[in-house]
Design brief:
Layout (H helix, E strand, L loop, with lengths): L3 H5 L29 H4 L7 H20 L6 H4 L4 H13 L13 H23 L6 H10 L2 H16 L3 H26 L8 H20 L6
Helix pairs in contact: 5-6, 5-7, 5-8, 6-7, 6-10, 8-9, 8-10, 9-10
């Protein structure tokens, strides 16, 4: 039976073997490199604050343009934000301040009521859309519904200007036409963006709450009258 010394004898000289540095090493060594991420290509950490603000303002302005010319587009869905809806909600709430329905004891809640109606209504419509099988995310739906308030906000500005001149039948007729057109515009714009995200047999169930949502806001604008 071979001893340990006999087994190790063929490898005894390997410890003295050295590889010369002049011998070329052949072959290719490839290191897999992953595709560059979007975060590596563009980052706002090193961007000046002014550029960031201007870029966000341009994005909000483009979304306003899409609402003015509603069509089936993913512009509001691809890069959603809540800056525009917040700005419109604050503007509408400020314009509805000082109505004849307000009193010394109830002047404050008017601002809060607008916020509750707009945001709570948007949340309810979004949840209804998700339960019916909608493919939009929660914040995408809030973004669309919020941006589509813009026609009604413009209608509120027009109504305030009309009320500065007169408050008779002619004034009411002008405000009725303006609010009705803005209500239809808001409803059509929102459904144009939300249509493709709903099952074909359930679109009516999604459009109906949207109709009621903008109808309530339009009714608040139409019935507004400045305090004397």
């Amino acid at each position: 039976m071979a001893t340990t010394e006999e087994l190790g004898r063929p490898f005894a000289g390997l410890s003295d073997v050295s590889i010369s540095e002049d011998i070329p090493v052949e072959g290719d060594i490839s290191v897999p490199v992953g595709a560059p991420r979007r975060d590596d290509e563009f980052s706002t950490l090193d961007e000046p604050v002014k550029e960031t603000i201007l870029r966000d303002l341009r994005a909000v302005g483009k979304k306003f343009i899409h609402v003015l010319y509603p069509k089936r587009s993913t512009a509001l869905l691809r890069d959603w934000d809540l800056w525009g809806p917040l700005l419109l909600c604050v503007t509408l709430a400020l314009l509805l301040q000082g109505g004849a329905a307000d009193s010394d004891d109830q002047g404050g809640p008017q601002f809060a009521e607008v916020f509750v109606i707009v945001w709570f209504g948007s949340i309810i419509i979004t949840l209804n859309s998700k339960l019916l099988g909608g493919t939009l995310s929660f914040f995408q739906s809030l973004c669309v519904l919020g941006y589509c308030i813009m026609p009604l906000t413009v209608a509120m500005v027009v109504c305030r200007i009309v009320l500065l001149g007169t408050s008779g039948v002619v004034s009411f007729a002008v405000r009725l036409v303006v609010v009705t057109a803005s209500f239809g515009w808001s409803t059509f714009a929102s459904t144009a963006f939300l249509a493709d995200s709903q099952p074909p047999n359930r679109k009516a169930l999604v459009v109906y709450p949207v109709f009621l949502f903008y109808f309530v806001i339009g009714w608040m604008i139409l019935t507004f009258s400045p305090s004397q």
